[in-house]
Write a structure and sequence with these properties.
Helix content is 12%, strand content 46%. The protein contains two helices and eight strands.
Length: 131
């Protein structure tokens, strides 16, 4: 069973290409935010992030030191209907068969997906750990 609702899964799997932003923590505690591509991994119920030369990136190195992570996947429908999913949790880095960052959700917040009410947020912890 997924940590994501059916509506969130529809959004995450949607055919539209949405850019995401991932936030990691640098060695001095400074946040680092960068745009990334992403995909939902139904087998592991994770958000997976790939990219060219991923192991050489700051985000990958940051996550090897401190695996706390957040990612936001969002868009805006006209005329002004923001919607998206934020996932906070921990990440694992892997290189076999290809480099990937797997984000395991511990807190999920979505907006514009579960309700048409402007500003309504659907938030919950998924692992008993607070992020």
């Amino acid at each position: 069973m997924s940590h994501f609702t059916d509506a969130e899964l529809d959004y995450l799997r949607g055919g539209e290409r949405r850019l995401a932003r991932i936030a990691t923590i640098g060695p001095d505690g400074t946040p680092h935010v960068t745009p990334v591509g992403h995909s939902y991994n139904p087998t592991l119920d994770t958000i997976d992030v790939g990219g060219m030369d991923l192991p050489r990136t700051k985000k990958y190195r940051d996550l090897q030191r401190n695996n706390r992570v957040a990612i936001v996947i969002d868009d805006v429908l006209p005329p002004w209907e923001p919607r998206g999913v934020e996932v906070r949790g921990h990440a694992e880095t892997a290189t076999d068969p290809q480099a990937v960052v797997r984000i395991h959700p511990e807190r999920i917040v979505s907006w514009g997906i579960e309700s048409d009410e402007f500003g309504h947020r659907h938030a919950r912890d998924t692992s008993g750990a607070r992020s």
